[in-house]
Task: inverse folding
């Protein structure tokens, strides 16, 4: 016999979260790193050998491990995800005054990387199925505003070239990459994946970041693995991979002692000590993913018994890392979002809303955009809840 | 009775270096870090607490320690010296199409930071006394080409505004900052010090980086102290300091959970684990400086007995960190530079020439410049020799 559902209230949500989460700490963080592997050993080796910076083996090893795990031909480690995105856009040829399509529901870095290139962000709506960029709606929109010319895709309304699309795999959930790739091919747009949040997430069995011409990862302190600060550029194009390495290491030509630089390059190389941390963390990723998926399953079950709220679940075509779990309020409960944020944070359970939609920030208010009603709706109803991998450890089926 | 000097030969130089340098390693590096203090303790604490990234106390402590050591009011730690320079230029208001005066004899980062702002590097000659930007020659040059208008200094030849001057304290030796500050005041130019190489160097008793409106430090692996990769912005202007922190941390407004960004910011924050290394390193800097100065003194004495070559010594007004020691060939021996580089490196003594002059690189060949004859001459005669602090340990007078 089916149990009747518990009615929604902010207090009931807090009670349910408290029941599931450990009581041994004053505050349950949104996401904490877990160092239980070779982190000490590798970092100490860096200090013992003096190889903490650009010289040392861990950067190469970390890049190799990223290649093996994601299946891409070339990974280039950099200082952070923002730097990775910046170089990705340079690699596909984004130039000043180009437009780049990206979701309005994303972290500011996606748009800032576009600005660093002197290009203009053009905001796209989200899909309820993935929370990420909606390729079907984008297709309809481009049919209206885009014109294919010999030199690419042009925006008939602004007179600017549209060079690339940057989907972001929101909170770890992959967008519909097959459909998006079709749209990109039809409109001659470069596909750049912002996979900052989706290390450990797969689309139709292939890792996210392995679908775009180039892609960006992040290893910030709140990500599924961390290097302190760090990121990586992924690509299956060997020549772009070599160029990524060159541009992120000041574009210096190899020589035993001479300094010859053949481009305006960047100092984006990940230090060896941070890469050492990354190697140890990446060794643990199968465990982290399984713990985070177990935690998500537990949240999903727990909230299945409550009306007016649900836990967002991965799309059918995806296996997600569930980087940050999402409580999705029903539309009639959206008004309760801020009270729920207040109460949970007051009670030591860290939560946060989705990012402020980028097209609403004063700095990007003048940027072109399509109808963004789905993103607006989602943003009003999303709350992220504690998602550290270790919170799921006890729920893993062994 | 004065000893006659030994005649110059490449072989004699190599022999003298070999005599002075330790024989226990296959290769004597140009500069290696030294971790003999609290490095491991602090880094381990980061790992134990999980505070490796943006959360944690070491970034604040490192900034505080930098303030105390350099005497500036505000230090802001960032991912590297290039990022520091980029933000310094933004802070003083460098805008696209402005010109920025900088030496042609410097590392590529000085010019690249200008390019990141969409501005144009304008190359200045060097002084034989300091190896850095020559303020007297600059003054004469500006008298010719500059025009002061209500809105600043303009280049009559190119029609562009000249916004700032970026001296670089070459290999640790301070430029003549008083004279340069006068020139800047006269021509309404912002003074931005590239102090990447001069942590531990003082001009007339006050630390380099404490003279410009803003200044940049570097803690790359080859610097006097290292954080793996890292840098800092220094300023005595509290409001610019606050803006530096804001711009380097994605320009996010402070809030417990909301994401509101009020400018196109940067992800340039130094991770806590790298700052931990920095705290331990900065505790050791008095020792590093004294060891490096003792090593320099030893080199100076050793080469005083040879004709046609000398070791560059600090200008009268400076106390230098002697970051990288410099063999300066006499003009007639300049032709021997490359053979000396070959032979030393072959024999396991790492050496290098100065950087390729920036105005000669294809990417900056079109940039405006003054007569650069002194820099050209110096570049043809400079060779950097091994300068790790521990090489000087046995020479320190106790």
Result:
């Amino acid at each position: 016999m089916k149990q009747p559902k518990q009615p929604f209230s902010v207090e009931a949500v807090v009670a349910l979260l408290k029941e599931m989460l450990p009581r041994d700490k004053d505050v349950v963080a949104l996401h904490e790193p877990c160092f239980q592997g070779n982190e000490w050993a590798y970092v100490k080796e860096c200090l013992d050998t003096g190889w903490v910076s650009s010289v040392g083996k861990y950067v190469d090893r970390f890049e190799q491990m990223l290649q093996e795990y994601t299946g891409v031909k070339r990974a280039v480690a950099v200082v952070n995800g923002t730097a990775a995105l910046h170089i990705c856009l340079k690699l596909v040829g984004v130039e000043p005054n180009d437009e780049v399509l990206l979701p309005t529901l994303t972290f500011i870095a996606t748009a800032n990387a576009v600005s660093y290139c002197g290009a203009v962000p053009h905001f796209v709506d989200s899909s309820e199925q993935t929370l990420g960029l909606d390729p079907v709606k984008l297709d309809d929109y481009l049919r209206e505003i885009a014109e294919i010319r010999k030199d690419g895709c042009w925006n008939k309304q602004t007179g600017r070239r549209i060079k690339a699309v940057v989907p972001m795999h929101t909170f770890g959930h992959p967008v519909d990459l097959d459909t998006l790739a079709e749209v990109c091919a039809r409109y001659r747009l470069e596909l750049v994946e912002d996979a900052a949040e989706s290390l450990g997430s797969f689309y139709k069995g292939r890792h996210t970041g392995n679908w775009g011409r180039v892609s960006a990862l992040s290893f910030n302190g709140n990500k599924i693995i961390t290097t302190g600060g760090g990121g990586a550029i992924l690509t299956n194009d060997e020549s772009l991979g070599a160029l990524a390495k060159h541009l992120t290491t000041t574009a210096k030509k190899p020589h035993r002692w001479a300094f010859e630089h053949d481009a305006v390059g960047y100092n984006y190389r990940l230090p060896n000590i941070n890469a050492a941390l990354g190697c140890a963390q990446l060794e643990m990723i199968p465990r982290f993913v399984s713990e985070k998926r177990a935690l998500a399953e537990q949240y999903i079950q727990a909230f299945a018994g409550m009306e007016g709220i649900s836990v967002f679940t991965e799309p059918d075509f995806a296996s997600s890392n569930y980087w940050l779990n999402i409580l999705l309020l029903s539309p009639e409960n959206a008004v309760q979002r801020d009270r729920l944020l207040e109460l949970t944070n007051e009670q030591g359970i860290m939560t946060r809303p989705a990012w402020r939609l980028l097209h609403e920030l004063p700095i990007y208010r003048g940027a072109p955009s399509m109808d963004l009603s789905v993103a607006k709706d989602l943003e009003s109803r999303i709350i992220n809840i504690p998602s550290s991998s270790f919170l799921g450890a006890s729920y893993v089926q062994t």
